Amino acid sequence: MAASETHLAVKGLPKRRLAEFVRRAKSFGMTPEKYLRTLVEEDLTVSRKARTTTFHELMGSARIVDEQELDQLVEAVKERHHRRSTRKR
Question: pTM for the whole thing?
Answer without folding.
Answer: 0.53
